[in-house]
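Hello, quick one for you while I still have it in my head. A protein chain has come my way and I'm curious about its shape. Can you walk me through what the C-alpha cells say about the fold? No rush at all, and the record is pasted right below.
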Amino acid sequence: MMTRTVACTHRPSRDSNRTEVLRDEDCQNPKPSPVQACNRFDCPPMWDTPDWGQCSQSCGGGVQRRQILCKQRLADGSILELPDTFCPSKSPANQQPCAKQECPPHWVTTDWSQCSVSCGNGIQTLQTILIRPTVSMCSKLFLLCTPAGECRDSTRYCEKVRQLELCPLPQFKSRCCHSCRNT
C-alpha cells in the first residue's frame, strides 16, 4: 500500500507561496483517497528462516534447530506455504552446532558390582570416575581395538555413559565409547 496525506488547502492568491489549511467540509467532494494499492503481484517463493531454537546442551557440543519452510506472499497480503521444490536453490541450514566450549570435569558413579562371594562376607565395589571431556583421553582409556580393526569398550565407564544418556556428546559417540555408536 502507498499512503499520502490529503488535506483541504487554499492559496489566497496565485502569487502567494502561503497556503491555508481548511476543514474537509470546505473542499469539493469526493475527498481523494489517502491510500492506494501498489505492487499488485505475488512475490516469488522464498525460504522462511526463523530464529534458531535453544541449544540442546549447555556445553560439550550441542545442536540448535529451526524449521525452514518455503513460503510465498500473495498480492492480497496472505502467505502461502509451498512444497520445498518451489523455492530457489537448496534450503538454508536447519541445524547448527552450539555450546562448543568444553564442559567442566564432573564425577560419575557406577552401580555397585556383584558381591565377590555368594554367601558369607564378601566385597562389593562402587567406582567413581572423574570425567574430563577431552576426546584424546577417551580414545586412549576407554576403547580397545584389535589389529583387525575391531573395537570394544575397555571399561564399565562406557556402560555408565550410555545409562546417563551421554552418547550424543561428540566426545563419546565418535571416539570414546564404541557401544555409543549403535545408539
Remarks:
- The chain has a mean pLDDT of 78.
